[in-house]
Amino acid sequence: MNTSSSSSFSSAPPRVLSRIAVLATGGTIAGSAHDATRTAGYQAGVVGVAQLLAAVPALSTLANIHAEQVASIDSKDMSLALWTTLVQRVNALLATDAVDGIVITHGTDTLEETAYLLHLTVQSTKPVVLTAAMRPSTALSADGPLNLLNAVSVAANRAAHGQGVLVAFNNRIHSARDVVKTSTFAVDAFHSPEVGALGWVQDERVEFLRGVLRPHTVSTGLTIEPVAADGWPMVEIVASYAGATRLQVDALVQAGVRGIVVAGTGNGSMHVSLQQALADALARGVAVVRASRVGSGHVMHNGAAPDDALGFVTANSLNPYKARVLLMLALAAGHAGPAELQRAFDLF
After folding, report:
1. What is the CATH number of the domain that holds 266?
2. Suppose 155 and one of 105, 114, 129, 183 were both cysteines; which one would form an S-S bond, judging by CB atoms 3.0 to 4.6 Å apart?
3. Is residue 192 domain-shared with residue 248, that is, in the same domain?
4. Which residues are catalytic?
């Protein structure tokens, strides 16, 4: 037997690994508790990015990792100033040849809002993938390490290019526009209720079953210019419910709010008292967007009252929290009139 020939089978050049930047912001994935049996009562954001990466040794076979600790917060405390910092850092990294994609570790509470913000403002077709965890890093069967492994798998996969900002969670790949948190405790806490997941990831295999159709990232023309929270247009959310009054709306108008998103009942309907208050607010130059407090479905534009008659904008399938993100960006870009704003909500 000629053993020398066998060496030719092992002389193939090594696989070139993607260069993935992992940006850590805190959250449950970086949480720690004194008791491994507890998945509540932990402190979020206390585990550093180096320790998160060390818990997943297989990452070294997937990519060359560059790690940064951008923040160490509980994502319920996400701020507009930190959003600005995160978007600017993501765009700066993606503009270089040294980074092929980005993974962002984030808390679950506001992940869908941050993901959609990035989806509208990232200026690159390179993959940006957010991931998180429902159990702290110290918990039995912590879900963070596998979610992180899967997120890097997606970011390193060529099929993720041009898909906009993605969320990898519990073996599913979601579009940032569609994904929402649907459970307070389950490890499958993120879903895309209207259209379903884009695909799946398991054991480093990535499969996309459909693409993203609405414009995103480099196609939106939306950017973030403010350097601090006070540079953002003030946009707030109010809800409609039985017995709702105009008190909140009047207080917001008095405070100088530039936009209000209403989490309406059903198809964005609202209590008559709230509707009159919002009509009065619009007459004073405040943009008003009708969304729904229901977990799925569309808020359709009504050519009769209240939309065309009062100047209300409808949120399409965006929930109130994502509608607020788009309204802030649209107002910052100078889109002030109802017709302009409606075009933005119909497009994005």
Report:
1. 3.40.50.40
2. 129
3. no
4. 28, 108
Amino acid identity of residue 62, one-letter, is L
Question: Are 58 and 174 members of one domain?
Answer: yes
If one counts the domains in the chain, the total is 2
Return d(Cα 20, Cα 148) in angstroms, integer: 12
Annotated binding residues for substrate, written as ranges, equal 75, 108-109
Return d(Cα 277, Cα 286) in angstroms, integer.
11
- Give the HSE-up count for residue 65: Cα atoms under 13 Å, Cβ half-sphere: 24
pLDDT, tens digit (0-9, with 9 covering 90-100), for 78-116: 999 999 999 999 999 999 999 999 999 999 999 999 999
Evaluate whether 311 touches 302 at the Cβ level (below 8 Å): no
Q: Is residue 11 part of a domain?
A: no
Output the six-digit token pair for 23. Answer: 């940006």
Q: Is residue 248 part of a domain?
A: yes
**Same domain? 202 vs 251:** no
Q: DSSP labels for 83-127? A: HHHHHHHHHHHHTSTT-SEEEEE--STTHHHHHHHHHHH---SS-
